[in-house]
Amino acid sequence: YLTVVIVLGMASIVVSLWDKFSESRFRPLRAGVFAVFGLSGVIPAVHYALAEGWLNALTNASLGWLILMGSLYLLGAFLYAFRVPECLYPGKFDIWFQSHQIFHVLVIAAAFVHLHGITEMLTYRMSIGACAVQSAALVL
Fold it and tell me: Which of 37, 63, 121, 132 pairs with 69 at a CA distance of 20 to 30 A?
């Protein structure tokens, strides 16, 4: 899982900093890279839920907060890729409330949701005094 996160993080850096990808034709690609990076936790979360049960994942592992975080990332990427609301009202959002600005607000909101979720997870783990997983190596 860590390798995937590192590769997606590097891809995000490349599409953000390489001038070639700043062209408008690469806007959907950039949004896609950000969305995939933002959702890179889906497979480990599903893996945990299958190994430990959905109820445990929702109550003890803050899966609900992670789902909300992913939804905020996806919404931001969608608005950014398709330039909503600029495409609906040309000229009305040239300075304020551009899709790029909305994207950043949603990313920050998702980061706070993530922080809240992992803080709840920490509180639960500290209250039980041990890790609930029986095996260090979970196998599908």
Answer: 132
Amino acid at 27: R
pTM higher than 0.70, yes or no? yes
DSSP secondary structure code for residue 20 in this structure: G
Measure the CA–CA gap between 48 and 33, rounded to whole angstroms. 24
Q: At residue 104, what is the residue type?
A: H
Q: Is 100 annotated as a binding residue?
A: yes
Delimit the domains of the chain by residue range: 2-128
**Residue 104 labelled as part of a binding site:** yes
SS3 63: helix
Per-residue CA distances from 134 to 74, 85, 140 (Å): 33, 49, 14
Neighbours of 6 (CB within 10 A): 10
- pLDDT averages per 10-residue partition of the chain, 140 residues: 92 91 86 84 88 89 90 90 89 89 95 94 85 57
